[in-house]
User: Fold these one by one.
Assistant:
Number 1:
Amino acid sequence: MNILIVSAEASPFAKTGGLADAVSGLGRALALKGNSVKILIPRYYCISKDSLELCKSALLVSTGWSEITVNVYRARNSVFYESGSLEYIFIDNEKLYGRNGIYGSDYEPDYHDNPLRFSVLSRSAFAFCRSINWIPDIIHSNDWSTALVPVILNLVERKNFPHTKTVFTIHNLGYQGSYPDAAYRLLGLPESCKYDCHLARFGGINLLQAGICSSDFITTVSKKFMEEAMTPQGGFGLDGILRGMSDVFEGIVNGADSTEWNPLTDRYIPVHYSKDDLTGKRICREVLQKTFGLKTDPDVPVIGIICRLVEQKGIAELFAPYYGAMYRMCSDFNAQFVVVGSGEKWCENEIHSLTGRFENFGSYIGYSEKISHIVEAGSDLFLMPSKYEPCGLNQIYSMLYGTIPVVRATGGLDDTVISWADNPDKATGFKYYDLTPDAVYNTVKWALSVFEDKAAVRKMQHNGMSSDFSWSASAEKYISIYKKLLSE
């Protein structure tokens, strides 16, 4: 099959979260199974042209009422397998994408022209395919930023792509591309399409809603989150639409890219190790402690946290002054804490404050791929107190690295972690249910008490590291969906 994946981000080129890893991981797995896969994203300033080659110059792309030109680049490290291939394609327009940030900046968290930027990305997908005479069987778009792909296919491009089917994956329902009505003109679509294509919502426009309603099939990134998305509590206002489309809606858990996340081969960690020999993990732990300026004590458990500092991740329950659990945990527990992340300023400031107050708390404000790998490899426990989590990848990475996750039982966290309370023999971590600081505090306390039992810890580590979180099984489920759509 010819498969075009359209996304705002993809690893290792542009990344703000799990979307980038999921897009690249799925693309690679599909290619390994004999498909011709192209992943198309914008070329942001963070992507150097040195690693790219020009494949189309001054390609004309309609914006609806006019045309703009884009350059199209291809990554030099495209991979060709025995029967499949994976290519990364980049749409380049300095005015639209030549700026810091993917969706926004510190001063403008959501760029005012994002509807234009991402509608041009969606239209460029079709212009590029036409220019090289490559017609995809499946176009797979992701989240609100590429939700216009199925809309544009149905409205404008169907004559050029008569048999192409569309799959749309919801990675995060909390971000929907909602804009005031005045932003509609940036999409370059006739006024009537606002209603015909389900773009209109509550006096404005909602790109995610349009993508859901216009696609042939919808997926999300775990079975539990699919169930939550169809409830008023977890559907973010779109639960009714998703319930109505339940016959073309499926939850498929994300995998982990073993080329990037594998303690046996990881290029970022100082020493490699395996489930049969964890000696290297102890060395990684010491390097982690030194990296964050903590005392290199082999007997004190290290608890890692890597996340965007936003409400979704449970940061209020963890860090809010006079409310969150972190201050009490640093004060009461014989444990060390390391945090990697950026986001809401009040939270960044509180983390700076905790770093200055406690010798057992270290932090890195921002994101570093290398430091994130060291945290996963060197931590003993990994804390994810998410308010909601469509899939989550860090709990999967943690298990693969022998780091025991402590998670709130929501979405993909519930699907992937087996709790010590439910089955000590097969346990891979700890789960709690209430979204409160006390629940975080008490679950970490419980995990630390179990951590004193070295045999139990070793058993959990072995269970987690023996789990199959590869993309292969998930890719097979997507292929099954693709084939079903093409046969109809």
Number 2:
Amino acid sequence: MRALIVEDDAPTRDLLARALREELFQVDAVADAADAETRAVTGMFDVIVLDVMLPGHDGFLVCRRLRARAVDTPILLLTGRQALEDRVRGLDAGADDYLAKPFAVEELLARLRALTRRGRSRHLTAVLSYGDIEVDQRDHVARVGGRPLALTATEYRLLEYLVLHAESLVTREELQLHVWGEHAGRESNVVDVYISHLRRKLNGDAASYVRTVRGVGYTLNRVGAKTCR
């Protein structure tokens, strides 16, 4: 699953990103309203965590503008405002849920799980498939030809992202951002190492789907150029 975090406070933004990645979310994180709207409209997110107090204009307006542009991704508002009228204002703006600061991370995660379950029929096909590969986003399990794969959490996120973007070129930078966030340096070979691990675990024909585009990144494709290992 993929989440967009909109929070201008860097420590809070980093805390949220770490917590969601530990729950196997792919996380994009931005700090202002303009970037939030651009990402939300162009990206395929399963949930948006939106702070109310943002530079530029507030989260209430962001929420209304997204709904006006037919973005129906579930939105959880975060705010230090705890008055009843503020909660009502947020829900009237089109938010699906509202959580006041300070909050427990466990409660935030529980609310996000509820939102993604509620929005699954609109936003998420529970099982992604490409060729013999299946990725069950509900149970975080991957299979090849019906055989479960023993993947680490990172390997699962990597395969899920490749399947979501099957037959499209995915750069190393994209994979670093969406699988590792800001933790992998631009010069790191972590992507290549994990691609190698993933190929070994896919094995057989499925392993050959993961193709290297030299100097750029990878693509998941059953046909085309010879795989470079």
